[in-house]
Amino acid sequence: MNIPLKVTDIIGTKDRVVKANEDLAKLTWKPEIIQTKDGRILKFRYKSFSTFVENGGKTTTEIRLSAKQLLCLLGGTSDYQTWNLPLESNVRRPSENNVVKSIINNLKNTSTEYTFPTPIYMSCTNVWQEGTYLCILLTDREGIPDGILDGGHRILGIKLADERDVDLSNVYICLRIFTGFSSQEITQTAIALNTSKHVRHTSINNYFNLYEPIKILLKDQTISFFEGDPSAPKDVYCSVSRIISLLKCLDTDYHPRNQSQGRNEKRHPITSLSIVGNFDRLPPFLEKYKHLLKPAVDLQNEIALELDKRYVKACQSGENIPYVTSPRNKKYTQIPSGATLSCKLPAAIYIFPIVSAFKVFLDKENKWTINFEKLHKRIVRKLVTKMIEILRHSKYQGLAENTNVRNPKIWDMVWDEATKMYNLM
User: Does the predicted model carry a pTM greater than 0.70?
Assistant: First the structure.
């Protein structure tokens, strides 16, 4: 059964909102966590709650918690991975961004009772009452665990405010609990709840496990797969969309010998580097070129390290390398291998044309015609030298990086250099 993607259709109309339990704050409150063969039960004291039934037997239960009670229920630290309520069903992952900072600031300046205007939404398998206790059963269905669907940033804001000794005694928030949803409906609901602000394609792709080949084949690399991913740097060089763009550079559908009515679309993937938003094309593309994932990332890492070495030497000699700069506010470039450079590299001008030029060394079946592991570093050094020479030419000096990276003549010159090297092997 398909459910509508409008949040109002899912949670009901305003006149059905459940009234809060005003006596809750007076009760002694300590949640229990009970592991069963079916899943995990959260059991906590709650005098009364209300449930209304939606079409199809789905139910919505709403309770009002004080901020302190919410923190007790969640447990753990400000790291969402330690919370009792899983966040895997949420499209986004919370980080201390401007939204969280604004929440903390608002809580600092709250002197009267304050209730968050928007509830936290979560899914569960069942909700029932045992005397004065409310029980919530959380299970994992088809790889989609029950847990928080929306509200991670609100929770993180409350947790960080508590850690910073903000008075939360008058702060309340509603918890709205959905039951009876299939794993597909949980997915649709989570996306619907997060569409008041655009959800990045990377997060949606990760939610649907489209990046599994990358996670498996590049498990030794540090890559950011979704918004707020705490396991990777925020540097563009470490983003999953960047990894896919590197792979696109090795797409053999693009070749300098190709001509399409005098245009350059099929010669170089200059304007087609990002396909993360194309949910139909991405899986077959990754399947076709997954054997080139590691070489593509190795090439980026090696180009970055080579530029870093040259930057250090250039600083000593008083020279400059086009577009490679001293980092501002200590924002050094970080690469997936885990290395942090001593400089700030440009986003694209060196990486994409050089990686694309390595197609010279691929055959018609996308297999290497050279010993890649043995030779790629030497080839990178020569192509970096060629790129620096090109960008120092008066024709390209002083232009914006994006202008030069979109110039097919620059890609052609790097390709020609790689072809010369191939012919001499």
Answer: no
Q: Fill in the amino acid letter for 351.
A: I
Report which of 226, 97, 103 is spatially closest to residue 154, judged by C-alpha positions.
Answer: 103
Terminal Cα distance for the chain, rounded:
61
189/195 Cα distance (integer angstroms) = 10
Cα–Cα dist 1/277, whole Å: 26
Give yes or no for a contact between 95 and 230, defined as CB atoms under 8 angstroms apart.
yes
Which helix (H) or strand (E) element contains residue 374?
helix 372-391
Crossing angle for the helix pair 152-163 and 67-74, to the nearest 10 degrees: 100
Q: Which tokens is 1 given?
A: 């059964």
Cα–Cα separations (whole angstroms), residue 341 to 16, 311, 327, 336: 56, 10, 10, 12
Q: 344-385 pLDDT, tens per residue? A: 999 899 999 999 999 999 998 899 999 999 999 999 999 999
User: In whole angstroms, what is the distance from residue 59 CA to residue 181 CA?
Assistant: 9
pLDDT bracket for residue 26 (50, 70, 90): very low
CA-CA-CA-CA dihedral for 240, 245, 246, 248, to nearest 10: 130
Of 384, 383, 373, 381, which is closest to residue 420 (Cα–Cα)? 383
Where exactly are the structural domains of the chain?
Answer: 7-199, 291-423
In angstroms, the CA 340 to CA 310 distance is: 15
